[in-house]
């Protein structure tokens, strides 16, 4: 703390000056050895005031035309979602492509897909926090928001899937006049209700806790009466007191500790929806880890998709640098390999188990009528991320954008393959069938993206998209210091 | 608001002798203090706020409350405050970096202050020790409420599935505890997490709305230490000079209701 002016020896004017390697200074370290200094997380020599201004400034100006265009497209898709839901609720789930052997269709596919997307946020904010990965500070706010919106979208589908969503409260153990008749707690559907609602609640609490100091920053900069009133209410009585920080930091650590197993539990429980069924292709002990790692994989892909756009549009290249993106790409590559390993393990087990039904299902997956979906999945998830072995590709925006889009597509098809290929060819050839999307399936799928993007776009306007107080904590004090301005006097 | 700004800049002229010494970086004309002085209306209701900076919700002996009517009028005159102004609320020291704030906090701690606080835009590592604060009790809330959540889940599941209305699912036992594990875990996390958040905000005083916000740039780039006048060891002159020597960029005595 004392020799603050000595640190921050290397100037990184902007994002492109970063190499991704530690800076080596010969003879400066212990016993005359080299001293390695990590590249700064925030480039451009930003001080504390710049951080506040850069992040909040965006929400203080009138939205750009680009934002309005994006919002109107998302809004249109969102209304498509509402129309689709109205049809499915008002007329019935028969409007969808589900049929006799394939009783689980796009609702379950979308549910698993969106819940999976929702895993990166809490992973970044909780697990990377426990591992002291400081680069998370640039991206955690957006990732957490993404998590909340993805889980909100995901939560719609099991409700719609029940067919009569107005009875959805029967899934909760409320005392009732029907006996009382309780939900069956042996059922993975009941587990799902608890897992998803807990996950949504805890993610929202975690997000709001992180937001509190930043909402106070918005409040203190606000000029308009209403703006000040709203953010004053949202930030409660936050005044930056260290007596508050003391409890706050402790609570943040506790929440991170609680969320870490929670992240792992949610997709585990989602995988139980499949694994507790006795069907070949689903009834496998590999499912929980396979689903969790796939969720992290798809979640990070979505984070990178959004970050690449957001850092450009919102001018946050100095906070979300190429080093941040590269770190995420490494995680994508690693989890992609684990996912590929899981696919191969499933194949191996179907042969090794000697179970003819297992063997049939997997042969049918890879070479049957849905082999196109299977190979899209395998290529996008297991092969494409291998590009990230090369540093050049990890740090290239166009390459990484293409890869993460393909990963998003691949992970959608993973859920498609799991749900459809197992169901469409039953034990008896007499009950075989095929599945295809109807107009309503498309409306639900595209509309869910609309709902997600609408919420996300509104979030980027209303709240600080980078965790301001956390980023300030990773800036070297010598760089962050704001000298007393001309005239900033002691007026007493 | 507008009238307040005018006042503040005038007040500046009176105490300058105190802070001139403290200011190392720049010599500032008082006028521009207005930009920073746009504190919101909450400060004006701050008669009772002196007690708030200590984190126990204990009611302090009403040292300042008796004189609320006398607070506003002197302010409106600006110049006369040096002699007849409101009661002293305390001493505010503003810093520009965490290191000096930390050192100043250590000195303030060693001075034996009790009713004082450090305000920072982000958590400063080591500040709890520097302020002489012990560990936060928040993990106890987490643990106790986790146990409560665990117990509720056990009671709900065994109560409904074994006692209230046992149903036979494929001849499996009623008390099928392995299938109760997921919900038990989720309820434990839910209870513990939500109470941790609410509990920490309560303990940290964030749920109290009328709080001292000593400087408008604390949530942006300034660090501040505020010593309440109600502190038993409070001595305006000595406290001012303590922070001057500690390298504050601005030190001043703050009047009640300012």
List keywords for this structure.
heterodimer; A: 492 residues; mainly alpha; two-stranded antiparallel ribbon; 17 helices; 64% helix; disordered N terminus; B: 258 residues; alpha+beta; 4-stranded antiparallel sheet; 10 helices; 4 strands; 9% strand; rod-shaped
Query: Major sheet of chain B: size, sense and barrel closure?
Result: 4 strands, antiparallel
Helix content of chain B: 40-55%
Radius of gyration of chain A: 25 Å
The count of β-strands of chain B is: 4
Distance between the termini of chain B: 12 Å
Strand count, sense and barrel status of the largest sheet of chain A are: 2 strands, antiparallel
Strand line-up in the sheet with most strands of chain B: 2-3-1-4
Along the chain, the helix and strand elements of chain B come as HHHHHEHEHHHEHE
**Unreliably modeled segments of chain A:** 1-9
> Average pLDDT of chain B, to the nearest integer?
73
Question: Residue-averaged pLDDT of chain A, rounded?
Answer: 89
Number of strand elements of chain A:
2
Envelope shape of chain A: globular
- The portion of residues assigned to helices of chain A is 55-70%
Model description:
The complex is a heterodimer of chains A (492) and B (258). By secondary structure, chain A is an all-alpha fold. Helices cover 64% and strands 1% of the residues of chain A. Chain A has helices at 48-60, 65-90, 106-117, 119-130, 136-161, 188-221, 225-234, 242-275, 287-313, 322-352, 356-367, 371-383, 391-394, 397-424, 439-462, 468-474, 477-480; strands at residues 23-25, 35-37. The longest helix of chain A has 34 residues, at 188-221. Chain A is globular and about 80 Å long. In chain B, 43% of the residues lie in helices and 9% in strands. Chain B has a 4-stranded antiparallel beta sheet. Residues 1-84 of chain B have low confidence and may be disordered. Classes of the chains: A mainly alpha (492), B alpha+beta (258). At the A-B interface, helix 1, helix 6, helix 8, helix 16 and helix 17 of A face helix 1, helix 2, helix 3, helix 6 and strand 2 of B.
């Amino acid at each position: 703390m004392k020799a603050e002016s000595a640190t921050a020896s290397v100037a990184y004017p902007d994002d492109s000056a970063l190499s991704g390697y530690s800076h080596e200074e010969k003879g400066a370290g212990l016993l005359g050895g080299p001293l390695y200094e990590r590249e700064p997380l925030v480039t451009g020599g930003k001080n504390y005031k710049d951080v506040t201004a850069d992040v909040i400034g965006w929400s203080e100006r009138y939205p750009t035309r680009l934002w309005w265009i994006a919002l109107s497209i998302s809004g249109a898709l969102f209304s498509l979602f509402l129309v689709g839901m109205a049809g499915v609720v008002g007329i019935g789930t028969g409007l969808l492509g589900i049929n006799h052997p394939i009783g689980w269709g796009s609702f379950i596919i979308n549910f698993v897909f969106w819940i999976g997307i929702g895993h990166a946020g809490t992973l970044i904010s909780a697990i990377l926090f426990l591992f002291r990965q400081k680069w998370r500070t640039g991206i955690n706010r957006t990732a957490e928001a993404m998590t909340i919106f993805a889980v909100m979208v995901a939560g719609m589908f099991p409700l719609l899937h029940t067919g009569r969503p107005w009875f959805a409260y029967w899934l909760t153990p409320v005392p009732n006049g029907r006996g009382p008749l309780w939900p069956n707690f042996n059922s993975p559907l009941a587990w799902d209700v608890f897992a998803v609602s807990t996950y949504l609640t805890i993610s929202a609490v975690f997000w709001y806790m992180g937001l509190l100091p930043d909402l106070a920053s918005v409040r203190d900069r606000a000029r308009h009466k209403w703006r000040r009133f709203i953010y004053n209410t949202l930030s409660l009585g936050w005044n930056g007191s260290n007596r508050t920080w003391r409890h706050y930091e402790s609570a943040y650590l506790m929440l991170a500790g609680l969320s870490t197993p929670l992240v792992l539990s949610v997709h585990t429980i989602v995988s139980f929806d499949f694994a507790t069924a006795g069907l070949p292709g689903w009834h496998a002990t590999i499912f929980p880890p396979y689903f969790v790692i796939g969720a992290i994989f798809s979640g990070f892909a979505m984070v990178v998709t959004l970050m690449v756009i957001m850092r450009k549009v919102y001018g946050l290249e100095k906070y979300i640098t190429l080093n941040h993106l590269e770190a995420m790409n490494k995680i994508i590559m690693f989890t992609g390999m684990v996912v590929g390993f899981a696919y191969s393990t499933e194949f191996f087990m179907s042969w090794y188990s000697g179970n003819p039904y297992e063997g049939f299902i997997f042969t049918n997956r890879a070479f049957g009528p849905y082999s196109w979906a299977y190979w899209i999945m395998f290529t996008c998830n297991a092969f494409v991320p291998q590009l990230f072995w090369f540093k050049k590709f990890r740090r290239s925006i166009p390459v990484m954008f293409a890869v993460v889009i393909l990963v998003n597509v691949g992970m959608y098809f993973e859920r498609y393959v799991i749900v459809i290929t197992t169901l469409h060819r039953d034990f008896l050839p007499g009950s075989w069938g095929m599945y295809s999307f109807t107009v309503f399936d498309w409306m639900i799928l595209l509309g869910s993206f609309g709902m997600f993007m609408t919420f996300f776009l509104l979030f980027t306007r209303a709240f600080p998209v980078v965790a301001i107080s956390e980023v300030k904590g990773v800036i070297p004090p010598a760089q962050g210091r704001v000298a007393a301005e001309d005239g900033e006097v002691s007026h007493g | 608001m507008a009238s307040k700004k005018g006042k503040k800049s005038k007040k500046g002229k009176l105490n300058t002798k105190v802070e001139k010494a403290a200011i190392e970086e720049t010599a500032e004309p008082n006028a521009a203090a207005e930009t920073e002085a746009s504190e919101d209306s909450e400060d004006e209701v701050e008669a009772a706020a002196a007690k708030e900076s200590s984190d126990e919700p204990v009611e302090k002996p009403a040292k300042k409350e008796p004189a609320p009517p006398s607070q506003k009028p002197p302010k409106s005159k600006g110049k006369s405050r040096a002699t007849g102004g409101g009661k002293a609320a305390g001493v505010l020291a503003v810093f520009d970096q965490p290191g000096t704030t930390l050192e100043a906090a250590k000195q303030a701690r060693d001075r034996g202050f009790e009713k004082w606080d450090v305000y920072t835009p982000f958590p400063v590592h080591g500040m709890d020790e520097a302020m002489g604060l012990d560990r936060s009790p928040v993990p106890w809330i987490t643990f106790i409420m986790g146990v409560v959540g665990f117990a509720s889940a056990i009671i709900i599941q065994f109560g409904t599935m074994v006692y209230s209305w046992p149903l036979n699912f494929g001849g499996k036992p009623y008390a099928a505890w392995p299938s109760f594990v997921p919900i038990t875990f989720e309820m434990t996390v839910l209870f513990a997490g939500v109470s941790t958040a609410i509990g920490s905000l309560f303990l940290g005083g964030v749920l109290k709305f009328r709080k001292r916000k000593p400087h408008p740039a604390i949530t942006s780039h300034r660090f501040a230490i505020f010593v309440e006048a109600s502190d038993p060891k409070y001595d305006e002159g000595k406290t001012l000079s303590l922070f001057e020597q500690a390298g504050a960029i601005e030190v001043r005595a703050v009047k009640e209701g300012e």
